[in-house]
Amino acid sequence: MFRRTSLPAIRRSLRSATSAAVVISIGMLIEATSVTADTWTQWRGSDGNNHAAAGTEAPLKWNFTTGDGIAWKTAIPGRGHSTPLVLDEGIFLTTAEADKQTQSLIKFDRQSGRIVNQWVLHRGTLPADIHNHNSYASPTPAFDGEHLFVTFHTDDAIWLSKVTTSGNIVWQRRVAEFKPRLFQFGYGASPLVEDGLVIVAAEYDGPDSGLYGLDCRTGKQVWKVSRPSNLNFASPIAATITGQRQILLAGAGMFAAYDSLTGKVLWSIDTTTEAICGTAVWDDRRVIVSGGNPVSGTWCVSGDGSKAELWSNGVKCYEQSLLAISNYVFAVADTGVMYCWRTVDGKEMWKRRLFGGGISASPTLVGNHIYIASEAGEVFVIKASPDRFEPIAENQTGDSIFATPVAVDGRLYLRTGVGTGRDRQEYLVAAGRVSQN
């Protein structure tokens, strides 16, 4: 029963509750939902921190070539960098087929990996140019318990579609114009469902640059916060810090937090750099992000509204996000070097080289293990320890990985590619448990 509970509705009730008993009971419900829901409902998971649910396991070793330890692998039509959503109804993934000029949502059977259906949401309106490191299907959808919310950069705008798990399009809305002038790099920000709204970032060097809140039910704009005329790629994320729910977003030379219901700025600090791709992470009272254009660095600020930058360093994690646990944050730099820092003061606990360089996917925490996928198709398993660097395993999985791994069902779901150039074929791979209870 907990899987069908609407978390936005619960949070709205929490905000308005005056009875301590109600607050306690709803808090217990939220905790139960987080623990029992064997799903992955949005970019960086249901809690937004890229942690698998408590009790989730994932394999340490598998062999992509022989199939040992692989439950299934399914060829994906087209290409994309979005991560899969794993829901009760199936697995959902976006893709784009440049030769057909389509952007689609695909549904896979959760048990077998078989493609159940593919629904074209846009046809003939792909952007003329994007960065050769980007894709036409980079944002990950979000799920509110009933519907999927899917964003695409298409027809010179950011479009949001509300789709049922059986593929019926409820509505489609043009969120904002998106016609970058200086750099045609495409789009990458994932939508966020919070408090009955879909929150969408559309940041570029044009008049519609902003953060938007749209009503989940109708698709109508509830609020807009103007953002600087500046190309930025970061996804908004929701976090509770010092008891306050807030939407975090970094880039455009600032680190800011917003109220989800109104879009009101809760706090803002002039720091970071112009272009941020990674999503903010948090630990207790602290919020951390990394980026690299034009200034490379990692920045940690206070998340309690005191507007204080706590520490920074020059390590660049441009496309990939960081991974935070209590009191510590892990980073895999563009150079292939992995770091662990103490969040209270930025002290370097350790650093080690993992690979030669090239990473787009973000590290995922499963239990006490961190899974890291490189652009060369390597998947490293590292102990999530601040005391020392402890490698566990390395698994070559195809030739290239740009999407972040997802852990559900005792499986690790990986979007990988085999081959290069026009011959590159993408697969959705389920490493781990062959049969489910």
TrEMBL record:
Signal peptide: none annotated. It holds the Pfam family PQQ_2. SMART domains: PQQ. It comes from the Bacteria. SUPFAM superfamilies: Quinoprotein alcohol dehydrogenase-like (SSF50998). Residues 140-351 form the Pyrrolo-quinoline quinone repeat domain. This is Outer membrane biogenesis protein BamB. It comes from Rubripirellula reticaptiva.
